[in-house]
UniProtKB/TrEMBL annotation:
GO terms for biological process: methylation. This is Methyltransferase domain-containing protein. Keywords: Methyltransferase, Transferase. InterPro entries: Methyltransf_11, SAM-dependent_MTases_sf. Residues 43-136 form the Methyltransferase type domain. GO terms for molecular function: S-adenosylmethionine-dependent methyltransferase activity.
Length: 266
């Protein structure tokens, strides 16, 4: 199943339970690292439910933020939850932005790049709409490495069913490493490119707390779960429960890593 499937991220509430709660912890670290001056105009590309937009509003003192996304459901959630007069939302394509040249001081994106068919086009578009001297930045999950919430899932799933690899973002989204991210930004003509890892813990009260978001149907791993019959899904659940590190009271603690990259527009 291609990760570019437009139906992959259809339900905002399911996404929030699955990945949004972790992105909310990554976003403030990312925006602090960008280190933009107050009063900037920001564009949040692929704004989703407004996780990154919310962090910009809370900590960056922007003059304004425009969130762009292709999903009506996500835009409705974002606009409902963020009533700040400095923010607005519009539907659009990250690979062909409607905004004019040199319109913003910063263009950012959270957890979107790996799901765009033409990544070079997306970075060129983000660079185009940013004024000279402005910043382009984004972050993605380390799908192939230390994003243990998903890495453990797919390691177990592919051991049981080799066909699970078709859903594995660690395989299908190879630009989730520091080297390819840096090369992408430099290839797009950005200067002063920097990459860093952002690491946070992911604590679950129980196995059910870990497992239930995979049943929501939104995202690659939940889509894989939805493709299984009841017996195969139950077997996957049992094997995961055996594999995950579990504390004496049933708690599970995993590591999550995102890779962040930023560059300067000439």
């Amino acid at each position: 199943m291609p990760t570019q499937d437009r139906n992959l991220w259809g339900a905002s509430d399911a996404y929030e339970r699955y990945m949004g709660r972790w992105s909310r912890q990554i976003a403030p670290i990312f925006t602090k690292w960008l280190d933009l001056a107050p009063g900037a105009q920001w564009l949040d590309v692929g704004c989703g439910t407004g996780v990154l937009t919310s962090s910009i509003l809370a900590s960056c003192e922007p003059a304004g933020v425009l969130g762009v996304d292709s999903s009506d459901a996500f835009l409705e959630t974002a606009s409902t939850s963020l009533s700040d007069p400095r923010v607005s939302f519009t539907q659009g394509d990250a690979q062909a932005l409607a905004q004019g040249d040199d319109s913003f001081d910063a263009a950012v994106s959270g957890l979107v790049l790996n799901f765009l068919p033409d990544k070079d086009a997306a970075i060129r578009e983000m660079s185009r709409i940013v004024r000279p001297g402005g910043t382009v930045g984004l972050y993605v999950w380390d799908y192939a490495g230390h994003m243990q919430v998903m890495r453990t899932f797919f390691d177990v799933a592919t051991a049981l069913d080799p066909g699970a690899v078709d859903y594995d973002d660690g395989v299908k989204a190879p630009i989730c490493r520091s080297g390819p991210l840096k090369e992408l930004f430099e290839r797009s003509g950005l200067g002063k490119v920097a990459v860093r890892a952002i690491d946070i813990p992911a604590a679950f009260d129980s196995f059910d707390d870990y497992w239930w978001p995979f049943l929501g149907g939104t995202g690659s791993a939940p889509k894989y779960c939805g493709s299984l019959d009841d017996d195969a899904r139950d077997r996957l659940s049992r094997e995961l429960q055996q594999r995950l590190p579990t504390g004496p009271d049933g708690e599970i603690l995993l590591a999550i890593r995102a890779w962040a990259v930023k560059g300067r527009v000439h």
